[in-house]
Amino acid sequence: MRLVRPDLRRLPLRARLVGIFVAVFAVSTAAVLFVSYLLMKNHLETTLEPGQAAPILRGLAIQYVLALIGTSMLAGGLGWLAARRLLRPVAVVTEAARRASDEHLGERIALGGPHDELRELADTFDAMLDRFQESIEAQRRFIANASHELRSPLTAIRTEVDVTLTDPGATIAELRQMGERVLEGSDELDRLLAALMVLARSQRGLVATAPLDLAQVAVLVAQDATRQAEAARISIDVDVPAAPGIEAPLTVPINGDPALVRRLVANLVDNAIRYHRPGGTVLLQVREEQGEAVVRIVNLGGAPVPAAEVERLRQPFERLGRTHASGSGLGLSIVQAVAEAHEGRVELAAPAAGGLEVTVRLPLRTAAPTRPTPHPGPVPGVAAPPQR
């Protein structure tokens, strides 16, 4: 018959702690009693007549064994109570983890007592719940806003079709006008979905990077935005450093996803033009500052931005004036996501003269490229840069 060894790892933590405590206590007590027994034996054998020490030593050994058993049992009981008290915070954390769900995101452990390892565990769990709650709430807001933004053009398309088709006397011109409005709504949906794809892609992180020159990207984006700026009667002033003896600006090297970096700069330029006043100037500047690659854009003199509303613009679908006809509210949120994917950060400021100043700081690549970087192409599926 094969004996099955018990798996001690399956025992509760409290039982294992008590077992270890009792074992250590019993071994140490037994060692002390054994040394005491040897000392007493040596003393009795040297002071008593031969044969008189034996019965005394037997009685002493029995008393020591009983004392060892009794103290070990007492230590086990006290250890069980102490372990239950010490491990109570673990039970609290476990219960909080079981309750953590969409309906109980606001609950926290808030463990008191001394600042020990268990208190640190509870505080870490509370911080994790804070981040989890923020993520869930941001996801809910994003889904709600995306549903609203997608529903608006769909409702407009459906209304236009219903009104036109219910009119039995609709002319060819009216039908053509209906088709043009449906096409405009479809284009708006296409741009919104493309922007959502870019946002999702940047939030997943970078799969691969390539050597880029941020200054070159800025120049190419500004050239592509020339027609849009001319239509809005706005000029673009590009301020980038030029390498000595080289016509093309190849002096602000970074590592990144070419399509996403281009989208970042394109969103900045598009927002600055879209929310500027006719006749104004947009300043697009690229610099190296304190070991970082910096792209800064300012539409000084544009529409005033309340200081309290600046940080809100980072969130998806947030823009100044929800009734504004243009813009999906994804421009700066995409800039934020792309910057974070490249381990960078975005700084927003509202100048007193009006407009918005956006500064993006990205890690600078230490080694400059030996040859000009390729033209960063557009993000697949994106026909035009999304707006703020």
Key words describing this protein structure:
53% helix; single chain; five-stranded mixed sheet; 388 residues; Heat Shock Protein 90; alpha+beta
Brief sketch in words of this structure:
The protein has helices spanning 13-47, 53-86, 88-99, 117-165, 172-203, 214-224, 226-231, 258-274, 331-341; strands spanning 210-213, 235-239, 253-256, 281-289, 292-298, 345-349, 357-363.
Commentary on this structure:
By secondary structure, the chain is an alpha+beta fold. Among the domains are: 8-86; 208-363, Histidine kinase-like ATPase, C-terminal domain (Heat Shock Protein 90). It is 53% helix and 11% strand. It has nine helices and seven strands; from the N terminus they run αααααβααββαββαββ. The protein has helices at 13-47, 53-86, 88-99, 117-165, 172-203, 214-224, 226-231, 258-274, 331-341; strands spanning 210-213, 235-239, 253-256, 281-289, 292-298, 345-349, 357-363. The strands form two sheets. The protein has a five-stranded mixed beta sheet with strand order 2-4-5-7-6. Helix 1 (13-47) packs antiparallel against helix 2 (53-86) and helix 6 (214-224) packs across helix 8 (258-274). It is elongated, with a radius of gyration of 37 Å. The termini are far apart. Residues 368-388 have low confidence and may be disordered.
